[in-house]
Amino acid sequence: MLVLVVLAGCGAGGDGAEGGGAGDVNYQDAGTAADGGGGGESGSASGGGDSAAQRESSDDGSATGSQSAARALVRTGQLRLEVDDYDATQATLTAAVEARGGYVADSAEEVREVGNETFTTGRVVFRVPSENFSGFVDSVEAEGETLSSETNTRDVTDQLVDLRARLDNARAERDRLRTLYESANETEDVLAVSEELSAAQERVERLEAQLASLEGRVAMSTVTVELREPRPESTTTETETPFADRDPVGAFLGSVDGVVVLGRSLVVGGAYALPYLLVVGVPVGVAAVVYRRVG
């Protein structure tokens, strides 16, 4: 009887958790949220001349503004800059992000060569508190010539609410199973509840990890910066010496080398051709001798 109760309760809890997770990933563009907020303000402003209606509309507009301010936003930025000194710029940006409470999450650089000169390119990933996102992006753009700049904002408020609700349901189911496990006496009941309890604990841990990851991306924005120094211009050009100005000794030695190369080529060519001459020439020679004797 206890096993049936456990399975029924777990089935109901599992259905509730899965039902809550139907929209697991549902990002909404921040522009849509902003348009919605703007619409609320416009609607309140379009009321008639009644002062009471105006005050009510003003209150509605304030409520809409406070709701917009409470939205959970994931903000990211991607920038490409050309800078005079890669190392100095990276050090300046690192100090800037640390001053704003952020840090360098990842970096990679490459030194390239053009002729006898070198230039450095690389990529640095910064994590900065979301409230300092815009200020840090402005600091990055001020460090060199901005080749490209792109920022994105995603509203994940609904996703956070969904994850938290699913996590609460999963924790409640786990706690209920723990109570049943502690009160179980029969071995069969203990084994059945233990299996369901392990599955419930796994669901809780998985949802906790998803929630922590999403909250981390909301709290700390990501800014990816590609830096490159100017590519040096190649100034080395090879000029051919006029024939009359060449060194006679060098010309003679060059000719001797050419003769040696030619001789080696003939020897190597003969070595390659010798097997074919034996295979083809011997039968032809024998046939010629026989033909002359018969004739």
TrEMBL record:
Q: What is this protein called?
A: DUF4349 domain-containing protein
Keywords attached to this entry: Coiled coil, Membrane, Transmembrane, Transmembrane helix
DUF4349 domain residues: 71-286
Kindly give the InterPro entries that the UniProt entry links to this protein. Answer: DUF4349 (IPR025645)
Biased composition range(s): Polar residues: 60-69
One Pfam annotation reads DUF4349
Coiled-coil blocks = 153-217
Q: Where is this region: Disordered?
A: 31-70
Gly residues bias: where?
34-50
Q: Which residues cross the membrane?
A: 272-291
